[in-house]
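Protein folds are increasingly written down as C-alpha coordinates. With that in mind, we are printing a sequence and the C-alpha coordinates encoding its fold.
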Amino acid sequence: MPSLQSFAGVAHEAFDLSVGEATMPLTLVEVAPLPATGLNPQPFSLVFRGTSAIVLPQKMYSLSNATLGRLSIFLVPIGRDPAGVLYQAVFN
Protein backbone atom coordinates (compact mmCIF):
# COMPACT_ATOMS: atom_id res chain seq x y z
CA MET A 1 0.00 0.00 0.00
CA PRO A 2 1.35 3.45 -0.85
CA SER A 3 2.65 5.62 1.97
CA LEU A 4 1.83 9.12 3.16
CA GLN A 5 4.61 10.39 0.91
CA SER A 6 3.25 8.51 -2.11
CA PHE A 7 -0.19 10.04 -1.70
CA ALA A 8 1.26 13.50 -0.97
CA GLY A 9 2.90 13.27 -4.39
CA VAL A 10 -0.51 12.88 -6.07
CA ALA A 11 -2.48 15.43 -4.04
CA HIS A 12 -5.05 17.24 -6.22
CA GLU A 13 -4.83 14.54 -8.91
CA ALA A 14 -7.74 12.63 -10.40
CA PHE A 15 -8.72 9.11 -9.35
CA ASP A 16 -11.30 6.89 -11.06
CA LEU A 17 -13.53 5.00 -8.64
CA SER A 18 -15.06 1.82 -10.07
CA VAL A 19 -18.80 1.50 -9.46
CA GLY A 20 -19.95 -1.68 -11.17
CA GLU A 21 -19.43 -1.21 -14.90
CA ALA A 22 -19.04 2.57 -14.58
CA THR A 23 -16.43 4.86 -13.07
CA MET A 24 -16.86 8.00 -10.99
CA PRO A 25 -14.17 10.70 -10.95
CA LEU A 26 -12.72 11.73 -7.59
CA THR A 27 -10.03 14.27 -6.74
CA LEU A 28 -7.63 13.76 -3.84
CA VAL A 29 -8.10 17.07 -2.00
CA GLU A 30 -6.28 16.41 1.30
CA VAL A 31 -3.40 14.25 2.52
CA ALA A 32 -2.83 14.65 6.26
CA PRO A 33 -0.59 12.89 8.78
CA LEU A 34 -2.32 11.59 11.91
CA PRO A 35 -0.80 11.69 15.40
CA ALA A 36 2.12 9.28 15.58
CA THR A 37 1.57 6.18 17.70
CA GLY A 38 5.15 4.97 17.56
CA LEU A 39 4.20 2.68 14.72
CA ASN A 40 5.89 2.58 11.39
CA PRO A 41 4.61 3.58 8.87
CA GLN A 42 3.13 6.95 9.85
CA PRO A 43 -0.70 6.90 10.09
CA PHE A 44 -2.46 9.30 7.74
CA SER A 45 -5.81 10.23 6.23
CA LEU A 46 -6.95 11.08 2.74
CA VAL A 47 -9.96 13.12 1.67
CA PHE A 48 -11.37 12.73 -1.82
CA ARG A 49 -14.05 14.88 -3.47
CA GLY A 50 -16.59 13.54 -5.93
CA THR A 51 -18.75 15.85 -8.02
CA SER A 52 -21.67 13.40 -8.31
CA ALA A 53 -24.78 14.23 -6.29
CA ILE A 54 -24.99 10.54 -5.38
CA VAL A 55 -23.47 9.68 -1.98
CA LEU A 56 -21.83 6.27 -2.06
CA PRO A 57 -21.99 4.04 1.04
CA GLN A 58 -18.89 3.28 3.10
CA LYS A 59 -17.08 0.21 1.79
CA MET A 60 -14.01 -0.97 -0.10
CA TYR A 61 -13.68 0.58 -3.55
CA SER A 62 -11.28 0.07 -6.40
CA LEU A 63 -9.62 3.34 -7.38
CA SER A 64 -7.08 3.99 -10.10
CA ASN A 65 -4.66 6.85 -10.60
CA ALA A 66 -2.17 7.48 -13.41
CA THR A 67 0.77 7.51 -10.97
CA LEU A 68 -0.23 4.99 -8.28
CA GLY A 69 -2.14 2.52 -10.46
CA ARG A 70 -5.08 0.49 -9.10
CA LEU A 71 -5.73 0.51 -5.33
CA SER A 72 -8.38 -0.97 -3.04
CA ILE A 73 -9.33 1.63 -0.42
CA PHE A 74 -12.05 1.74 2.26
CA LEU A 75 -13.90 5.03 1.81
CA VAL A 76 -16.38 6.67 4.19
CA PRO A 77 -18.62 9.59 3.17
CA ILE A 78 -17.92 12.44 5.60
CA GLY A 79 -19.99 15.31 4.24
CA ARG A 80 -20.46 17.79 1.45
CA ASP A 81 -18.93 21.06 0.46
CA PRO A 82 -20.04 23.43 -2.32
CA ALA A 83 -18.03 21.42 -4.87
CA GLY A 84 -19.32 17.92 -4.04
CA VAL A 85 -19.31 14.94 -1.70
CA LEU A 86 -16.28 14.26 0.52
CA TYR A 87 -14.96 10.77 1.27
CA GLN A 88 -12.25 9.86 3.80
CA ALA A 89 -9.79 6.99 3.96
CA VAL A 90 -7.72 6.41 7.12
CA PHE A 91 -4.50 4.40 7.15
CA ASN A 92 -3.34 3.44 10.65
In short: The mean pLDDT is 94. The CA atoms of residues 44 and 71 lie 16 Å apart.
